[in-house]
Amino acid sequence: MPPRLRAIFHDVDELGIVGGMVVTPRGVRPADVLVRDGRIARVGKIRAVGKSVSAQGLYVLPGVVDAHVHLALPVAGTRSADDFATGTLAAAAGGVTTVIDFTVGAPDLSLATAIEQRLSQAKAAAVDFALRAEMVGWTPDRAGELGDAAALGVRAFKFYLAYGASGRRTPLGTLLSAMEAIRKLGGVAMVHAEAEELVDAAGGPFPAARPAVSEEVAIAEVGILALRTGCPTYIAHISSAQGLAALLAARRAGAPLMGETCPHYLLLDQSVYARADAHQFSVTPPLRAPGDREALWRALARRGLQAVATDHCPFTRAQKDATAGDPARLPSGLPGVETLLPLLYSEGVAKRRIALRQLAWYLAEGPARAFGLWPRKGTIRPGADADLVLFDPHAHWTVHTSDLHMATDFSPYEGMAIQGRPVAALSRGEWLVRDGELLGRPGRGTFVPWQSGPS
Ligand SMILES: [Zn+2]
After folding, report:
1. Residue 336 included in any domain
2. Residue 173: CATH number of its domain
3. Number of structural domains in the chain
4. How far is the CA of 397 from the centre of ligand 1 (A)?
5. CATH no. for residue 29?
6. What is the pLDDT of residues 389-412, one digit of tens each?
């Protein structure tokens, strides 16, 4: 098209976000962001554009990538309360512009079929999403299926070292051969690290039955496998100082390990299990002691982990009440996707436990790099998707479950005073939230296939 016409066309498709403080893992600086055709076109001083919004007094953050969510997950005879529509609308409200979920694996289901089934369910998503293949009943002779998954854009694979009773556990020998194959594929293994022999499954999701030593032993074992295979390996939901120490030791020995922790391990502790509604806090691994919490914060301050993700797996009070007296059948999981960013800002940055730029690492670049979404997601630089959050660091509010969008009537953070909240969010240049109003709609989210190797 002629240059003049193109200029007019682009005026229509351009949006300038001006006067804010842009936050990346490398630092915080005043800069405008020019969005064009759904992507970031420029970061720096921009000239007049067709449309612009003022970000004066606000932080401009990369859209949050929640690397660990379970939407519509069949578990313990029930289903996690958020589906892809409600869970991703709640994500949008909290500044999360990409979620990474899982397939629902089964021994007799090929990885490709499991991926296609989950992609079909995920069509309802309001934000972009990626998938990992859940490896259930995996056997080494199925290695050819890994390439089928990669062809569908999935190069991350999730293994459990616990949950033998429900058939989800992968023996170490099988994991070793899978990790060799995943390294050759250029993918990543994600591991739920609890050593089965040290867990009392009948005791339910509580510290006495799932002690920190089970996490410590499992991470040490996986660290050795990662070292020997060279397979990039991401340890999910680290809950304890002991588990963390095992991760750091394995990494010092040269193992390509990445670690994740979750807001509930940073903000809560096992004292909640003395409450009458203790069962509402059921989560695996369980909440630990205050010293574990502090060790995790210290690791975050030194950039010792790859991501803070939610393991978002909400249930309603009624869903947990139904099996309150039977720990072994109690569904395990907490809501979190909507409160991730404000909680980590309020408790981490505002309380000076971590630097502001670390927020952009743990919530965006770290997880995007780990799971092959980078540099399309998780960064504010030309060419990336225009997934951005405008964040007001001076807003003060109180968590009330009834104000949140997650499909549950329970929040472990009910009544907590928070500093900072997202006031606007863009996904590929479209407003998901503007002036606090939720504008995203189910079905607009798209699948983000694996872009590159972990880096
Ligand atoms: Zn999980």
Report:
1. yes
2. 3.20.20.140
3. 2
4. 28
5. 2.30.40.10
6. 999 999 999 999 999 999 999 999
Q: What mean pLDDT is reported for the chain?
A: 95
- CA 31 to ligand 1 center in whole angstroms: 37
The per-residue pLDDT for range 188-235, each reduced to its tens digit, is: 999 999 999 999 989 999 999 999 999 999 999 999 999 999 999 999
Q: What is the pLDDT of residue 12?
A: 52
Interval between CA 236 and ligand 1 midpoint (Å):
7
Q: How far is the CA of 438 from the centre of ligand 1 (A)?
A: 26
Q: How is residue 286 written in tokens?
A: 């369980």
Query: Residue 2 has what pLDDT?
Result: 47
Do 56 and 66 lie in one domain? The reply is no
- Global pTM reads 0.96
Calculate how far, in angstroms, residue 25's C-alpha sits from the geometric centre of ligand 1. 26
Ligand 1 centre and the CA of 124: distance in Å?
21
Label each residue of the chain as H, E or C. CCHHHHHHHHHHHEEEEEEEEEEECCEEEEEEEEEECCEEEEEECCCCCCCEEECCCCEEEECEEECCECCCCEECCEECCCCHHHHHHHHHHCCEEEEEEECCCCCCCCHHHHHHHHHHHHHHCCCEEEEEEECCCCCHHHCHHHHHHHHCCCCEEEEECCCCCCCCECCHHHHHHHHHHHHHHCCEEEEECCCHHHCCHHHCCCCCCCCHHHHHHHHHHHHHHHHHHCCCEEECCCCCHHHHHHHHHHHHCCCCEEEEECHHHHHCCHHHHHCCCHHHHCCCCCCCCHHHHHHHHHHHHCCCCCEECCCECCCCHHHHHCCCCCHHHCCCCECCCCCHHHHHHHHHHCCCCCCHHHHHHHHHHHHHHHCCCCCCCCCCCCCCECCEEEEEEEEEEECCHHHCCCCCCCCCCCCCEEEEEEEEEEECCEEEEECCEECCCCCCCCECCCCCCCC
